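Project outcomes to date are best conveyed with an example. Our students and postdoctoral researchers have been running inverse folding experiments weekly, and each run begins with a structure described purely in tokens. The record below, which covers 69 residues, was selected by the lab manager from last quarter's runs and is presented without edits.
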């Protein structure tokens, strides 16, 4: 069984600049509020016995996610 690990990065906390929707760059349900909004996300997929699989560094462009492998 695999598991996704995601880390959100807010470069200017408290301003509300960045992504503040209801799902993250991999479509997982999450919410950002109280002036926090994500500018970048780093995601990894752990595939149990075979170790680390997919990884992405994703940037919020202001209108959508830019996916970097």
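After processing, the design step wrote out the following sequence:
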């Amino acid at each position: 069984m695999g598991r996704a690990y995601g880390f959100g990065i807010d470069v200017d906390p408290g301003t509300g600049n960045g992504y503040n929707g209801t799902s993250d760059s991999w479509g997982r349900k999450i919410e950002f509020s109280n002036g926090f909004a994500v500018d970048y996300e780093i995601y990894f997929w752990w595939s149990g016995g075979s170790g680390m699989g997919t990884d992405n560094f994703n940037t919020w462009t202001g209108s959508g996610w830019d996916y970097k492998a």
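The chain has a mean pLDDT of 87. The chain is about 0% helix and 40% strand. The training component of this project remains on track.
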